[in-house]
Amino acid sequence: MKLVLLGTSGYHPNDRRHTACLMLPELGVVFDAGSAMYRVNDYLCTDTLDVYLSHAHLDHVMGLTFIFGILAGTSLETVTVHGEPEKLEALRSHLFSELLFPVDPPLKMCPLEPRITLADGGVLTHFPLRHPGGSVGYRIDWPDRSMAYVTDTVAAPDVDYIERIRGVDLLIHECFFDDTEPEQAELTGHSCITPVVQVAKAAEVGRLVLVHINPALADDSALPLAAAKKIFPKTEIGTDGLVLEF
């Protein structure tokens, strides 16, 4: 199975990264629709596309307005956006307000179900995360592998969602801050690097990839990766275009 990191920035894009968007091309599954959503075209190999939203903040949904461009020249038959009902209603009322986006996009919106069976038999579940306005994390289990996507939340060594991601082969987790701004992380509902790797260790995951990186950082060396690896050795920083096989 391949997971493509289309966008790995948080808050806004910069010259190195676009905002949150991950894709499982073989399944036509996308997690979040940030500014990197236009890159979906490069990996499409299905006639359906299912977009699962963590929440409705603009850096995670702005790419839904690119849908006409994504559909152009493809064989896509349906695009379905899955999210919590109140988040979908916010999209209808605000993002796709006539004054902001005057033509209704050709997509369906479906409330998240507790358990979804994907085309290849994988089982997708979701769980609540602490973030202003609320967010959800996702986990997919196949008979021989598993992954989880956790973004826009405050990591802590004893956080509730550890049990929901326990033992996954691949954990994609946000890491907006280094360890110098814990108060700002708490205020904004984001994570510092040391608590993230502590979560990965406590949950006994196989591999940790950090995303939702602060776009204000000059480069990846601003994150103390060497120190983080002392806690959880299989930690890496995700970059746009990175293809992960698991």
TrEMBL record:
GO terms (molecular function) for this protein are: 3'-tRNA processing endoribonuclease activity
| This protein's encoding gene | rbn
This chain belongs to the protein called Ribonuclease BN
Q: What class of enzyme is it?
A: hydrolase
Q: Methyltransferase among the record's keywords?
A: no
Q: Which UniProt keywords apply?
A: Hydrolase
> Which PANTHER family does UniProt cross-reference here?
ZINC PHOSPHODIESTERASE ELAC PROTEIN 1
Q: Report domain Metallo-beta-lactamase positions.
A: 51-213
Concerning Gene3D superfamilies, the annotation shows: Ribonuclease Z/Hydroxyacylglutathione hydrolase-like
Species of origin reads Bythopirellula goksoeyrii
